[in-house]
Amino acid sequence: MSGPYSFAGKRALVTGAGAGIGRATAKRLVELGAEVVALSKTDANLKTLQEECPKIQTVCVDLADWDATRTAVEKLTPFHLLVNNAGIGHVASFLEAKQEDMDKLFSVHVKAVMNVSQVVVSDLLARGLKGTIVNVSSQAAKRALLHHSVYGCTKAAVDMLTQVMALELGSKGIRVNSVCPTVVMTDMARRFWSPPERAEPMLARIPQKRFAEVEDVVRAITYLLSDASDMVHGHALPVDGGFLIT
Ligand code: NDP
Fold first, then answer.
1. Domains in the chain, start-ordered, CATH in brackets?
2. Among 25, 61, 114, 131, which residue is least crowded by beta carbons within 10 Å?
3. What spacing in Å lies between the alpha carbon of 117 and ligand 1's midpoint?
């Protein structure tokens, strides 16, 4: 494949590539010509991914472990494309949210994005290379959703981190954006959104009257990674069927 959606000659790192959006993104980037490294926490998931897609290289590390993550990513650079996608579903009422859940979600959703991006970007700058980063945020960064106090705060932090990274790195040839999907029925979302009493009120607020498919998010990530979005920088792209306009 040629044109703006060709990633031939590019190396890509996708975090949380063992399942859901990350797994599908890693596979798509291989189809589009990139050399892909899939990072995740559960080795069994990485093994099945590699069986399905033997060209993918895998790395098993817990992103909540700052030092282990840094060491693992440093060994694998350079990466021209980075998708900070790994995430943990978490729902609890404000009064019931626990300190350990805050620590875990901020570690994986925010600190790991900073950590992995620092390693990847420092290496690109040292080599004089350009790069593109997409952080996977959520509509929960932009709207108050019931029982999403911890999750929503981490995703709002991802969007601000995206903006500051864009501000500091744009002049150095590193482009940074995030995507903000609505509900996508991956394993993570199914646990909370399957009951009709939860799904139906949310669907009623989405003008397109459906949840996103994994493929909808993969296409948005691919666009933001590609030269087709060359002047799009520092933005949070909703993939939400219009939820955020209501
Ligand atoms: P899944 O649960 O399907 O996949 C999450 C992936 O993240 C898994 O591969 C998992 O690893 C990995 N992961 C979780 N914790 C860690 C960790 N500590 N270290 C390394 N890897 C880790 O989730 P989705 O595909 O649904 O979500 C992907 C992203 O999209 C997340 O950031 C999520 O917040 C966001 N999002 C999801 C929405 C949805 O409705 N599904 C809506 C909006 C945003 P492993 O498989 O190895 O255990």
1. 11-245 (3.40.50.720)
2. 114
3. 17
